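Why does this matter for the project? Reviewers at the last site visit asked to see concrete outputs rather than summary tables. In response, this paragraph embeds two records directly. Each consists of the residue sequence and, immediately after it, the corresponding structure tokens. Nothing has been edited or filtered.
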Amino acid sequence: MTLFELPGPAPGVCDDPELMLVHQHLMKLDPDGARFSRVLRETIDQLLNGEATGRYDWKTLFKTEKTHAGTLVEINLQREFEFEDGIDMDYRIEGIDVDCKYSQKYGSWMIPPEAEGHLCLLVWADDYQSRWSAGLLRIKREWLNGGTNRDMKFTIKAEHRNKIIWLWKDATLPENVLLHLDPATRERILIPGKKKGQARVRELFRSVHGKRIGRGVVRTAAQQLDYMARVREGSKGRARPALRPEGIIILGDYQPHRAVAQALGGPVPEEGEFVAHRVVRARSEHTGRPQAEIDGEFWVVAQPGDAVEAAPQLPDAQEGRSENGQ
């Protein structure tokens, strides 16, 4: 996970032993932020509910759904890390009450009056920037803007945000691929129609190469309960067998495929992700380019000028962990 340099906290802020104890505990649970990042990606996808709605854009959510986002982040983080219920706040971490506040807009965390004096886990994620942050702050009234809204909730004054002790700052959020595609490509993928799920999934992997594609993207394209089956081997209409004659391989998250992805020099799929490439057999003119051995031959990622040739059969999923995480 790529992280930018973290800004230093304001003087005196680290003199809070409870805050630092919680900070150290969370960093031990998730040293690189990968678990936290996955929860945020899955929560946004849960809100979009692409399987049922075909939505991929935060702006298309109803106001009530956006309001519910903070609750879902709170619930899903607790499930992931198995935090105990708090006494007065949301969680109890290392015996310390911690409230959880999420905002899709940086700095717009809504702090209730009862959080004063307590620790808050402040979380931000932005699907348009593909960035997220999470930090801890002991809430002090003098650091807050006056509560002028109906619920009498407060926000943190901009000049006091430097008092937040960051766990992860401006970390990379797994990309919402459909959101960031050019409109023409996205329109080509999202063919309208209830019975076009398999065609949409094929077009997704035909059009998007060299990117990590998460389950949420596949779910939105398929708009079917068995969306993962649209990718796997099986009937000739499924994405892997259908695209093989076009030279396209679809790598999953289990170890044999991850090894191929790494050898090809592209992104390596994480849990619940896929990466597609068009490949060609390695020849003398490909010397110096990353090569992967697949089905007894060496292959490279195709360049635009390379002629299309049928792709090889990928290693069997049973040789590693399944794409369902089982």
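We now turn to the second protein, recorded in exactly the same manner.
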Amino acid sequence: MTDHRVTVVVITHNRRPELLRTLHALSDLPERPRVVVTDNASSDGTAEAVTRLFPEMTLLTPGRNLGAVGRNLAVAEVRSPYVAFCDDDTWWEPLSLRKAADILDTRPRLAAVTARIVVEPSGEEDPVVAELRDSPLAGPDWLPGPALGSFLAAATVMRTDAFRSVGGFHPGLWLGGEEELLATDLLQRGWWLSYVPDLLIHHAASEARDSTERRVLGLRNTLWFTWLRRPFVPAVRRTVHLLCTVPRDRASLRAFGRAVAGLPWVLRRRRPVSPPVEARLRTLERARRAYTARRYVG
């Protein structure tokens, strides 16, 4: 059952127990994928444990916390046509990687497939699945599922060449909603993204997280993405909507403050998308207002 078409990339920071559980699950997959781990400067013995318990896996230790860019470092080591991303608290269902590779093999303009996510230990669907399943975007008939405007790095298999063609994850965003910019750049180049419910990934959310700081980063990055890629009028409209709807608290204030501080580099690198891609972004923006899975709360 060994399948060399997919390499799994994992980034981690100070979550040794969660990471080791994920690596055990990945090592048991019938596809026997190569696994590349980027340890973002953990101080809890993560690197030593991975080296001791999983010597067959590739471990990268950049010496500092690169955030999402740690995935770029790992993808530089990938030689397979497809790369499967998962976080240190998610792991792939057996045979899902093989199914994803089969789908990508026959659809050369499909950049990525995102899996159905179930929450452990309950086995219930993650609330974000409804947003993926009910995507309002239209796509060509050959797509294996609903067309998407973005993806979840914790649950996606991507064409390696497509990832590299847009430069991977943007270093300016670091972490938090970093997928949106990469996905939009893929759409701008004519790639397609799709949700495939036959693919499955498990998520046991780590308790080692600062939900407030994640909200700050997510809101900041949403604002930066808006001004990096949206035309002027939609960017103003989106910014005003966020100002009016996010919680009025210190976290939101910090997020807007950080976003304003970064405006000089954002405006220097601003490249608004084409009208067809902007139309898709508007459609997604309207639909997302009805969902609660990714609100800026916490």
